[in-house]
Amino acid sequence: MGEDGLLYVTGHDRPEVYVLALPPAGPVLRHVATLSVSTEGQAIAWDSEELRLLWSIDRATQEVVASRVPAIDG
After folding, report:
1. How far apart are CA 68 and CA 74, in angstroms?
2. What is the pLDDT of residues 20-69, one digit of tens each?
3. Parent domain of 36
4. Long-range contacts made by residues 39-46, C-beta under 8 angstroms, separation at least 24?
5. Residue 14: inside a domain, yes or no?
């Protein structure tokens, strides 16, 4: 969950992060945005010190990659 209250998730094979909003009630999440990132991994984590910095793992190179994530109007 981002500091903006939105949920940021990835799939397994596309270099994308999906931004979702929790519903006020009910079981259906609302898709807010799809963001391009440079990795196509399954592991992401927000930086604990720097806002809007998302860390991910590039499976092919086994490198840890930092991505700047723009503010999202959810």
Report:
1. 18
2. 999 989 899 999 999 998 888 667 899 999 999 999 988 888 899 999 99
3. 7-68
4. 39/15, 39/65, 39/67, 40/12, 40/13, 40/14, 40/15, 41/10, 42/10, 42/11, 42/12, 44/8, 44/10, 44/17, 46/2, 46/3, 46/8
5. yes
Is position 12 within any domain?
A: yes
Q: Give the predicted TM-score (pTM) of the model.
A: 0.85
Task: Evaluate whether residue 1 is within a structural domain.
Answer: no
Q: Cα torsion for 59, 13, 49, 5, to the nearest 10°?
A: -160
How many domains does the chain divide into?
1
∠ Cα 39 33 31 (to 5°): 115
